[in-house]
């Protein structure tokens, strides 16, 4: 479904019909709320003085029918709000999830919070807070009816409503800032705990468990104190509201009695005035009771609305031809988010189709950042990346992704079967079958992962666990990730240290894979710290401190290498990208 740029506002507009219907039913419900007051008024004014039992029976029947209709209308109103919540989910959830997964312009914290905000907002549509908000506009009707009973009763109802509204505004003003801050700190605390769970193995191995636990307990204690302060502040206002409502409702009874003594109203109007005043004040008290939910929904809407203003990754783009693999980087600069520190500084270079480029340099030079930028995972602060002359933003991300093989430095596998991971979950969008199985096997064989996968407990159907690595060793994880990158015979490859966890046989197989890709005419950029892969590349691009130091043919770069007596680790590249002595093969993990 094509939606406008802000999916949240579009979805809320689509739910307007439900909200109008809820408003209509709320009006009818509030009118029926008068039934008990009218019943009491008639009993005291007509039935008791005349001792009219038939009249009492008729009034009782009318009251029963009115309350049955009231209950049915209230049920329909709740169902309408539930349907609005479901419609909001149906229209907006997909687009928001696409933005969370596919938007590089938002921080991980913003993306993690977006769906929580959406669920908070959607949950509020079915809670008591939204009912109170729809009932609140009808409070003036009860004040007018009170005025019809007697102007003094109407004046008391008006003053009472203004007092409670003032309390509600004061309560909102006193805790608004604190609630927003606690919400932000709570999200940070949960993210910190999630990260500690992922890193629990490291914490245990390094004897950090007690320190990590104390850190989280300190965060929780601070949150508990802040939440307690907010609850105490809100509780005070809520207690004052309950006191005022009960007191003023009793005063309405006293005022009615006084007016009845002076024969200005009937005896039945005494009790009717008290009930009507209580009903006029009830929505304000309900809003105060649900103030925490109302403010959470308000903050969620603001945060989600800001997130939904990011570029829409689901927007329809013109389908471009299958890329040949020409990559142009023009004056690309990438900074650390929220900082002026530069990771990549004005990089410009061109890679022709069918070229294999080795991306080398010391740790922290910006190699992984460059590969993430080329793949679209990082949006450059300045400059642009073009594929076959088209900017990355001009390509449909999914269509371009089919022609790209990306393997990050830390291979990320999803909690699903090995087959589903390699096939990029293609069965969910196109269905499975023999053709898909053949593509998966071809990719695994080209990566040298087929024999390794067959040794898994259930082969290609082995399900990976929901934890780092998915239950595989680093080398196995890297082979599966490489097979996934090779799936579908892409035209462009971004491989970030694909040999980091491979033994000498695995690296030999990887060199053969690169040669096969070259024969196919694929464009490959491979990051490496080891010199073994250099024999399979055409060019070498040396990065240092985010700046290109060397970009030339492999032969020229190697001819300019310094004498071997220069101090550097065997098998590594020095800071200029020059190769040291290749270590002898010993087998095992590198």
From TrEMBL:
Residues 565-581 have a biased composition (Basic and acidic residues). It comes from the Bacteria. InterPro entries: AAA+_ATPase, ABC1_TM_dom, ABC1_TM_sf, ABC_transporter-like_ATP-bd, ABC_transporter-like_CS, ATPase_T1SS_PrtD-like, P-loop_NTPase, Type_1_exporter. Keywords: ATP-binding, Membrane, Nucleotide-binding, Transmembrane, Transmembrane helix. One of its GO terms (molecular function) is ATP binding. Residues 20-296 form the ABC transmembrane type-1 domain. SUPFAM superfamilies: ABC transporter transmembrane region, P-loop containing nucleoside triphosphate hydrolases. It is found in: Cell membrane. One of its GO terms (cellular component) is plasma membrane. Residues 558-590 are annotated as: Disordered. It is a multi-pass membrane protein. Its main location: membrane. GO terms for biological process: protein secretion by the type I secretion system. The chain crosses the membrane at residues 20-41, 53-73, 125-149, 155-175. Residues 327-570 form the ABC transporter domain. Pfam families: ABC_membrane, ABC_tran. This is ATP-binding cassette subfamily C protein. It comes from Sphingomonas yantingensis.
């Amino acid at each position: 479904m094509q939606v406008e740029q802000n999916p949240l506002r579009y979805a809320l507009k689509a739910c307007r019909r439900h909200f109008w219907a809820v408003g209509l039913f709320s009006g009818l419900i509030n009118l029926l709320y008068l039934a008990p007051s009218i019943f009491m008024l008639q009993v005291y004014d007509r039935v008791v003085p005349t001792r009219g039992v038939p009249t009492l029976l008729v009034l009782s029947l009318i009251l029963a029918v009115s309350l049955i209709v009231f209950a049915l209308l209230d049920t329909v109103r709740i169902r309408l709000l539930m349907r609005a919540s479901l419609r909001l989910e149906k229209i907006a959830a997909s687009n928001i999830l696409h933005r969370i997964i596919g938007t590089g312009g938002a921080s991980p914290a913003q993306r993690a919070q977006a769906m929580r905000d959406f669920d908070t907002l959607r949950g509020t549509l079915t809670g008591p807070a939204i009912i109170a908000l729809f009932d609140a506009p009808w409070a003036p009707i009860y004040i007018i009816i009170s005025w019809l009973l007697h102007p003094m009763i109407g004046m008391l109802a008006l003053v009472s409503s203004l007092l409670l509204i003032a309390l509600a505004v004061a309560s909102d003003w006193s805790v608004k800032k604190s609630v927003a801050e606690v919400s932000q700190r709570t999200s940070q605390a949960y993210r910190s705990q999630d990260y500690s769970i992922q890193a629990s193995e490291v914490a245990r191995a390094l004897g950090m468990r007690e320190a990590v636990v104390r850190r989280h307990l300190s965060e929780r204690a601070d949150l508990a104190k802040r939440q307690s302060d907010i609850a105490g502040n809100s509780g005070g206002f809520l207690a004052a509201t309950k006191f005022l409502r009960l007191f003023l409702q009793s005063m309405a009874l006293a005022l009615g009695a006084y007016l009845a003594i002076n024969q200005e109203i009937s005896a039945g109007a005494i009790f009717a005035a008290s009930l009507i005043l209580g009903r006029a004040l009830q929505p304000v008290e309900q809003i105060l009771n649900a103030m925490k939910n109302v403010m959470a929904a308000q903050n969620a809407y603001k945060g989600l609305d800001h997130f939904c203003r990011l570029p829409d990754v689901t927007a329809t783009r013109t389908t471009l031809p299958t890329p040949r693999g020409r990559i142009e980087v023009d004056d690309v600069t990438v900074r650390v988010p929220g900082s002026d520190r530069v990771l990549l500084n004005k990089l410009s270079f061109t890679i022709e189709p069918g070229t294999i480029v080795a991306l080398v340099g010391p740790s922290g030079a910006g190699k992984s950042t460059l590969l993430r930028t080329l793949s679209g995972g990082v949006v450059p602060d300045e400059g642009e990346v073009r594929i076959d002359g088209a900017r990355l933003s001009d390509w449909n991300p999914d269509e371009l992704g089919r022609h790209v093989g990306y393997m990050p430095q830390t291979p990320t596998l999803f909690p699903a079967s090995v087959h589903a991971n390699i096939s990029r979950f293609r069965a969910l969008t196109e269905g499975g079958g023999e053709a898909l199985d053949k593509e998966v096997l071809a990719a695994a064989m080209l990566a040298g992962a087929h024999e390794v996968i067959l040794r898994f407990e259930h082969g290609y159907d082995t399900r990976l666990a929901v934890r780092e690595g998915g239950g595989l060793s680093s080398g196995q994880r890297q082979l599966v990730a490489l097979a996934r990158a090779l799936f579908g015979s892409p035209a462009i490859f971004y491989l970030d240290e694909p040999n980091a966890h491979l033994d000498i046989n695995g690296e030999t197989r990887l060199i053969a894979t690169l040669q096969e890709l070259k024969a196919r005419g694929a464009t490959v950029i491979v990051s490496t710290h080891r010199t073994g892969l250099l024999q399979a590349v055409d060019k070498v691009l040396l990065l240092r401190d985010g700046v290109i130091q060397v970009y030339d043919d492999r032969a020229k770069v190697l001819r300019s290498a310094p004498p071997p007596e220069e101090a550097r680790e065997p098998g590594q590249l020095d800071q200029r990208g020059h190769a040291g002595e290749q270590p002898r093969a010993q087998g095992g993990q590198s």
